[in-house]
Amino acid sequence: VRTGSAKFFEFTRKELKIKTLLISASPRKEKSSSFLLAREVAAGLAEEGIACEALHLDDYKFLFCKSCEVCHKRILACPLKDDATAILKKILDTDGILFASPNYINQ
User: Fold this and answer.
1) What is the C-alpha separation between 73 and 67, in angstroms, rounded?
2) How far is residue 104 from each of residues 33, 55, 78, 101, measured CA to CA in Å?
3) Which residues are within 8 A (CB) of 89 and not within 5 positions of it... i.e. 6 or more apart?
4) 1, 35, 73, 74 - which has most CB atoms within 10 Å?
5) Residues 61, 31, 51, 42: is their CA dihedral positive or negative?
6) Backbone angles phi, psi at 50, to 5 degrees
7) Please, which residues have CB within 8 angstroms of residue 99's CB and are 6 or more apart in sequence?
8) Chain centroid offset of residue 60 CA
């Protein structure tokens, strides 16, 4: 029973073209330790046929929320003209998310 399930899963995964999104929060981008670790995870996913797109939050512009509550009435309807909506659309279009966030210890 297990063998059949594994084969079915492998077939389904390739057919579905699973997509993941790697979101890096470090301003050091590709040089950060957290991104290097997450990139290794993404490489493992690629070996399994799972696509992974990486984005660095430092490359995007974010504005502070004004508490207008427009987003409570309509999804993704923020009146602020920043890059948050574009990132949210990418998140909604993906099957999995990897977060790479720096941890500053004793600094």
Assistant:
1) 12
2) 11, 21, 32, 10
3) 76
4) 35
5) negative
6) -105, 120
7) 23, 25, 38
8) 14
pLDDT in tens, the chain (107 residues): 444 444 445 555 556 688 999 999 998 888 888 899 998 999 998 888 899 999 999 999 999 999 999 988 888 788 999 999 899 999 999 999 999 998 877 76
**Distance (Å, whole) CA 71 – CA 59:** 24
Q: Are 100 and 21 in contact (CB under 8 A)?
A: no
What pTM value is reported for the model? 0.74
Encoded amino acid at 43, one letter: A
Distance CA 94, CA 40 (A): 19
